Amino acid sequence: MNKDGFLMFKTFFLTIFLLSILQGCTSSVEVAANIGKKYFNKKDNIYKSSPIYKVGNKYQVKGKFYYPEKNMFYNETGIASWYGPKFHGKLTANGEIYNQNALTAAHKTLPLPSAVKVTNLENNKSLILRVNDRGPFVNDRIIDLSSKAADLLGLKKKGTGLVRVTILQDKSVALEKLAKKGSFPEIIDLPKPETPDVIVPQKTEVKVEGISKDHSKQKNKKKLIFDLKNLKNNFNIFIKLGSFSTLNSAKTMKKKISYINKIKIYKIFKNGKYLYQVKAGPYLNVDKVDNILSSLSANGMQGAKIIIE
Fold this sequence. Notes:
Blueprint: H1 3-20, H2 28-41, E1 59-61, E2 64-66, E3 75-83, E4 104-106, E5 114-120, E6 126-133, E7 143-146, H3 147-153, E8 161-167, H4 169-180, E9 205-208, E10 211-214, E11 237-244, H5 247-256, E12 263-270, E13 273-283, H6 286-298, E14 305-308
Parallel strand pairs: 3-7, 4-6
Antiparallel strand pairs: 1-2, 3-8, 4-7, 5-6, 5-8, 9-10, 11-13, 11-14, 12-13
Helix pairs in contact: 1-2
């Protein structure tokens, strides 16, 4: 081994050692391995792909922890963004090469790869995408779309959009099985499932004199088909600030953030008990929500979460 090779070898294992003793991130060895993979495989500014199936451990970005999990009931509404040229050709979180022209997406917690249906709530356009990367980590976005996906869904010019993201169980299981055998096909190349994918509808809330009451019945978790024809064209954006077991605690939170307008307390029923949820809104555009989230973050409110109704 020549001198340059020895120095490269020494640097790689020193990186693993230092990261393995870091506190606050349970997957530091995994991070070190990924850094080493990028360091050794990079040649002439081209990354070589070594993809794996991955759920991952708890990790931290910008002071916030995320908990990856295999959630086959995932069904959320929120704000989508997109990423393109800056990351094109680089490695994704599971070791694939990011292609901005493929129908893929990044998600903070879902397995890599998995399949999701993304619907633009403002025009009802939808796509089935393959999740193969981690992100986004800006202002509580729920998904980062590839450049191609954002274009087809009609939100690329705006930069962001209101979306529903629902995991597709059969396709996700198929992707997992293939990935564990070393195969990472695009969604279009997957064999057709024997049974159709199903989507679980979200619960709804009804406001009553400034406090909302949850009227959804969750006696079981049977998989139900969500009817996209029932989607409305107009949606409001709320910021959930916290849930409390007592009304007094909710009022204290409301008073603490009185510098924000449109704050209300909602009474909800969850996990067999009533809670008092503090939400700000409704707001009609993403820019307004971004400004409010920046203000909340500056005042130490890191747990604020965007919800779409």
